């Protein structure tokens, strides 16, 4: 979780564009986070063409109502992408962490339904498989209990929630994101045709290795699972290994299946 809030418009400084012919990676943020979470990645790994998505209710879109329904969130994201990256690229990949993983999965399915084989690979991180039941919820709890449960889920507490003004500003969006995630069920439609790379922090206490097994059934071309050092928010501590894997997989032939 992050105090940064941002929809599906492409947000922030102009994306760093990778080498000619690189596949853009549409990046969906985790609960409470905005597009700015990915800006350091753009500077750190300019060879990747990372396209952060800005969801309503955060950062420069803080005055917009955040979605609590996944179908509405997907509709908004895809509508913006059609006028942006999908209008200029024949191939795209997607990345998402936690809530962003299921959003990226459903956006990828929608892109395939609209535009055939444009999705080359889906990267999902820190997320159970789409049809996995989430046993513990935070939706409906009091503010203090809600933040304590979210802190337990994420594995850390951001200092912004100890500042009353910031807490009041950020709570509606993080509540909406958590409700969206906890009420998620896979949308109807065929399985993804693109291969999936499923990433997980080795010490993730929220998403066990067994929870990710079902991602294999989410794609017609299989799913590889990669464990990286760290806990649930391993990518906030050091994204280097994640970015390296993304670069390696995107350099493979587009017809490659998951390992």
From TrEMBL:
The Thioesterase domain sits at: 24-247
Superkingdom, according to UniProt?
Bacteria
Q: Which InterPro entries match?
A: AB_hydrolase_fold (IPR029058), TEII (IPR012223), Thioesterase (IPR001031)
**Swiss-Prot/TrEMBL GO biological process terms:** lipid biosynthetic process
The record ties this protein, via Pfam families, to:
Thioesterase
What does the similarity note say? Belongs to the thioesterase family.
Q: Know the name of this protein?
A: Surfactin synthase thioesterase subunit
């Amino acid at each position: 979780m992050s105090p940064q809030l941002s929809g599906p418009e492409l947000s922030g400084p102009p994306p760093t564009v990778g080498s000619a012919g690189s596949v853009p990676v549409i990046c969906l943020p985790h609960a409470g986070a905005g597009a700015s979470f990915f800006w350091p990645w753009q500077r750190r790994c300019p060879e990747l063409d990372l396209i952060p998505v800005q969801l309503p209710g955060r950062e420069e879109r803080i005055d917009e109502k955040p979605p609590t329904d996944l179908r509405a969130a997907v509709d908004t994201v895809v509508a913006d992408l059609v006028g942006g990256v999908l209008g200029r690229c024949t191939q795209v990949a997607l990345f998402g962490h936690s809530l962003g993983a299921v959003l990226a999965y459903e956006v990828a399915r929608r892109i395939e339904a609209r535009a055939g084989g444009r999705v080359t690979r889906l990267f999902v991180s820190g997320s159970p498989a789409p049809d996995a039941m989430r046993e513990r919820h935070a939706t409906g709890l009091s503010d203090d209990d809600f933040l304590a449960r979210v802190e337990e889920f994420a594995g850390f507490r951001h200092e912004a929630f100890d500042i009353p003004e910031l807490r009041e500003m950020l709570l509606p969006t993080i509540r909406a994101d958590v409700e969206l995630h906890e009420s998620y069920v896979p949308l109807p439609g065929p399985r993804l045709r693109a291969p999936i790379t499923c990433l997980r922090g080795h010490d993730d206490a929220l998403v066990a290795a067994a929870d990710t097994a079902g991602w294999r059934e989410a794609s017609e071309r299989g799913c590889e699972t990669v464990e990286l050092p760290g806990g649930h928010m391993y990518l906030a501590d050091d994204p280097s290994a994640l970015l390296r894997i993304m670069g390696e997989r995107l350099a493979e032939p587009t017809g490659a299946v998951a390992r």
